[in-house]
Amino acid sequence: MAKLYYDKDADLSVLKGKTIGIVGYGSQGHAHALNLKDSGQKVMVGLYKGSKSWDKAKEAGVEVAEVADVAKAADVLMMLVPDMNQRDVYKSSIEPHARRGQTLMFAHGFNIHFQRIVPSPVLDVSMVAPKAPGHRMREIFTQGLGVPSLVAVHQNVSGHALQTALAYAKGIGSMRAGVLETTFKEETETDLFGEQAVLCGGISELIKAGFDTLVKAGYQPEVAYFECMHEVKLIVDLLYQGGLAYMRYSISDTAEYGDYTRGPMVIDSHVRQSMQKILKDIQDGTFAREWIAENDEGKKRFLQLRKQEEALQIEKVGGQLRAMMPWLKRTI
After folding, report:
1. pLDDT of residue 331
2. Strand pairing of 63-66 and 19-23?
3. pLDDT score recorded for residue 330
4. Which of 31, 159, 250, 253 would disulfide-bridge 137, Cβ 3.0–4.6 Å?
5. Residue 2: band (very low, low, confident or very high) from pLDDT cuts 50, 70, 90
6. Contact yes or no for 47/22 (Cβ under 8 A)
7. Distance in angstroms (rounded) separating the CA atoms of residues 282 and 288
8. What is the pLDDT of residues 72-131, one digit of tens each?
9. pLDDT tens-digit readout, 134-144
């Protein structure tokens, strides 16, 4: 049975008198920093000199300094720069200042699990991984709520690494929703799999395939967009609120019957075998090595793929239709 923690299980006084350093001020970084600040914690943001986020953080009332200076001052240091930048930032600006009693934290286990970062043995190393984008995490916090998080401990030098991590989770609001205990391995592998096979890769390909099928059959692209892209949010909201059963309760019997009988024709045994291959590539490090190499080579293929996807018909049609919907608001 999974171990879950809530507000009563964490004590913010664990962080009393301590400085929390947030390395990075992007989507996650700004949310962590501001939520902790609003929770009464002393927060510093670590950035490189000349960062476009420097003035944003200062305007929000957060102390800003270069990463090395934050590493010297902080008792708890949360790494929130992109995965592929973390190793260089750690080696150049954090490792030289590591000291016993410090906690090094992550919001994703990639660099620890695949040993791109081997932390100093004097550090506590833990993870608090919110299960929402940063802008959503911040929005929910300001409403007095919180988003769920995962928590894990990799090194427990002090003997109270978990307590510190739970206090941090409370500071960002996650204890209001619940925090589930896991490991760096489990978080990393399941997160990558979910992104690739379902949440990003799987859904994107399913939407594109559905749109293309209708358009090639002679249906209007605008109608295909509404059926295969626009209405996804309606279904996802129902799933989010009450799972598969609530979604099926809310749709028509015709749609429900089509779900039961035609869904397995799309997600068939071949798709499930492909999912197994994706998971195996994550588990044995194949994907990690590929992604690291892609970054080392300047992300040429990645940028080419991005450009190709931005030029798709579904994106052009969607942009035109969304322009006619003033109630839609992009949060980033």
Report:
1. 58
2. unpaired
3. 67
4. 31
5. confident
6. no
7. 7
8. 999 999 999 999 999 999 999 999 999 999 999 999 999 999 999 999 999 999 999 999
9. 999 999 999 99
The 42-47 sheet, strands edge to edge: 4-5, 179-181, 149-155, 124-130, 103-106, 76-79, 19-23, 42-47, 63-66
pLDDT band at 232; cut points 50, 70, 90: very high
108 catalytic residue (yes or no): yes
Which entry of 30, 32, 108, 154 is annotated as an active-site residue?
Answer: 108
Identify residue 111 by its one-letter amino acid code. N
- CB-count exposure of residue 117 (10 Å: 0-12, 13-18, 19+): buried
pTM recorded for the entire structure = 0.92
Categorize the per-residue pLDDT at 332 as very low, low, confident or very high, splitting at 50, 70 and 90: low
Residue located via tokens 């992109």: 82
What is the Cα Rg of the chain in Å? Answer: 22
DSSP assigned state of 219: -
CB 250: neighbour CB atoms within 10 A?
Answer: 16
Asked which of 86-100, 296-310, 317-331 is least confident by mean pLDDT, the reply is 317-331
**168 and 76 in contact (C-beta within 8 Å)?**
yes
Q: From residue 197, give the alpha-carbon distance in Å to each of 44, 204, 295.
A: 36, 10, 21
Strand-pair partners of 66: 47
Rounded Cα distance, 127 and 149, in Å? 10
Tokens 């008198």, residue located: 17
Between CA 231 and CA 270 the distance in angstroms is: 26
The residue whose two tokens read 């929390």 is 20
Beta strand pairing status for 124-130 and 103-106?
A: parallel
Residues in the chain: 332
